[in-house]
Automatic annotation (TrEMBL), chain A:
InterPro entries: ATP_synth_b/b'su_bac/chlpt, ATP_synthase_B_chain. It comes from Sagittula salina. It is a single-pass membrane protein. Its main location: membrane. F-type ATPases have 2 components, F(1) - the catalytic core - and F(0) - the membrane proton channel. F(1) has five subunits: alpha(3), beta(3), gamma(1), delta(1), epsilon(1). F(0) has three main subunits: a(1), b(2) and c(10-14). The alpha and beta chains form an alternating ring which encloses part of the gamma chain. F(1) is attached to F(0) by a central stalk formed by the gamma and epsilon chains, while a peripheral stalk is formed by the delta and b chains. It holds the Pfam family ATP-synt_B. Residues 69-100 form a coiled coil. This is ATP synthase subunit b.
TrEMBL record, chain B:
Keywords: ATP synthesis, Cell membrane, CF(0), Hydrogen ion transport, Ion transport, Membrane, Transmembrane, Transmembrane helix, Transport. One of its GO terms (cellular component) is plasma membrane. SUPFAM superfamilies: F1F0 ATP synthase subunit A. This is ATP synthase subunit a. It is a multi-pass membrane protein. Pfam families: ATP-synt_A. It comes from Sagittula salina. NCBIfam families: ATP_synt_6_or_A (TIGR01131), PRK05815.2-4 (NF004482). Belongs to the ATPase A chain family. The lineage of its organism: Bacteria, Pseudomonadati, Pseudomonadota, Alphaproteobacteria, Rhodobacterales. It is found in: Cell membrane; Membrane. It comes from the Bacteria.
Length: 183, 256
């Protein structure tokens, strides 16, 4: 890369008068000291930069990341366990509630049935009472009707007798009607 | 590119072809035209400094928010951290993690140097053997000293293959010894060689672009090479790092 020609007086064993390399520049002894000197400085500088700053920093970052990942995984596992517990609790609560609901329904059904039975019995008794009362009333009415028939018959007989122009002997008419009715 | 001065070569080929694939690797003073001394601020200094800046941008500024949910830059920084950290742990074992900052330094430096070198007109520091040999020798010396400090003389058991038949062991010991000392050579040349070759080939293709008839092919070839070089830039950094981990493992656990 001899872009600027090197002056004539500098031409030595490594570079010709036109600034071109003589043979392999790699084998030029004149430059070795310079290269080795600066290389050693470079290596020492890089070593200290790496050993003192860069590598401990990267190591700590990697360790920190590993720690974070481990913690996060642990936390995730914990949360998962919690979620599973919660699910189990929920399932249990649901089953309990269902069972309880069934019990309550059964109980209510029983209570209603018992109430119903009682009411039915009461109603039956009332119906029976009403029926008996009605029968009694009917019997009373029938008796009173019969009594009325007797009175009417006696009156009618007396009236008929009177209509016949005979003065009715009340006692005899009554006795006749009675005997007829007993007939 | 210095056309009139290389007119002779160009004329010899009967075209405007000028190849200087190695000129990109020349070390130059950044200020003035002085000599390149040991402490001269050169293009090497500039691109090494830019590598430091890149490391700071990614690893320090990128992670400055310390977010639990990372931003893009923090993600990349964490990705790089995790990538090398896992590599060290997998290859060198748990006790190798003590040396993780050291290996991370090598990896980030090579990655950034390689990728900065892929910027057009830039200077690729890792294409120089001087640089990669220092890196490889640092690894080799550290690992060897560490091996003896941690294991004492039993570190030599690395070369004594106990599972092999007794007669073969001395032969194997010689082979193991040679291969051990070839490690820094292959370690450094692999990196610099790959990077340098790729850059030089791109430069050669760029030279062909001067011929109008070939230039479309040349541009396509440069694009393809560039794609390959992007891969090489990362893969060579990876290879260098994982080999460092393997050598570290040998030092910590020398018995096969």
């Amino acid at each position: 890369m001899a872009t600027e020609p090197i002056t004539e007086e500098l031409a030595g064993v490594c570079v010709d008068s036109h600034g071109s390399a003589v043979g392999m520049p790699q084998l030029c002894g004149d430059w070795i000291g310079n290269q080795v000197f600066w290389l050693i400085i470079t290596l020492v500088v890089i070593y200290f930069i790496l050993a003192r700053v860069a590598l401990p920093r990267i190591a700590s970052v990697l360790a920190e990341r590993q720690g974070t990942i481990t913690n996060d995984i642990a936390a995730a596992e914990e949360l998962k366990a919690k979620a599973q517990d919660a699910e189990a609790a929920y399932e249990k609560a649901l089953a309990d509630a269902r069972a309880e609901a069934q019990t309550i329904a059964q109980k209510t059904r029983d209570v209603i049935k018992a109430d119903l039975d009682v009411e039915m019995a009461k109603a039956d008794a009332q119906i029976a009472a009403k029926a008996a009362e009605s029968e009694q009333a009917i019997a009373g009415i029938r008796d009173s009707a019969l009594a009325n028939v007797e009175v009417v018959a006696k009156d009618t007989a007396a009236a008929i007798v009177a209509a016949l122009g005979v003065t009715a002997d009340e006692a005899r008419v009554n006795a006749a009607v009675d005997s007829q009715l007993k007939g | 590119m210095a056309t009139e001065t290389h007119g002779a070569e160009a004329a010899a080929e009967g075209s405007a072809l000028v190849f200087h694939p190695m000129d990109q690797f020349i070390v130059k003073p950044l200020f003035g035209n002085g000599d390149v001394g040991m402490f001269t601020i050169t293009n090497v200094t500039l691109w090494l400094f830019l590598a430091i800046v890149s490391v700071v941008l990614l690893m320090v500024l990128g992670t400055s928010r310390r977010a639990i949910v990372p931003s893009r830059s923090q993600s990349i920084a964490e990705l790089a951290y995790g990538f090398v950290h896992k590599m060290v742990e997998d290859v060198a074992g748990k006790d190798g993690l003590k040396y993780f900052p050291y290996i991370m330094t090598l990896f980030l430096f090579i990655v950034f140097a390689n990728f900065l070198g892929l910027i057009p007109m830039s200077f690729t520091t890792t294409s120089h053997f001087a640089v990669t040999v220092v890196l490889a020798l640092a690894v080799f010396l550290t690992v060897t000293i560490l091996g003896f400090v941690k294991n004492g003389a039993s570190f030599l058991g690395l070369f004594w293959v106990a599972s092999a038949p007794l007669a073969l062991r001395p032969v194997l010991a010689v082979i193991e010894l040679i291969s051990y000392f070839v490690r820094p050579v292959s370690h450094s040349i692999r990196l610099a060689g790959n990077v340098m070759a790729g850059h030089a080939v791109i430069k050669v293709f760029a030279g062909f672009a001067a011929i109008a008839a070939i230039s479309p092919i040349s541009v396509i070839a440069i694009t393809a090479m560039y794609g390959l070089e992007v891969l090489v830039a990362f893969i060579q950094a990876y290879v260098f790092t994982i080999l460092t981990c393997v050598y570290l493992k040998d030092a910590l656990h020398p018995h096969h």
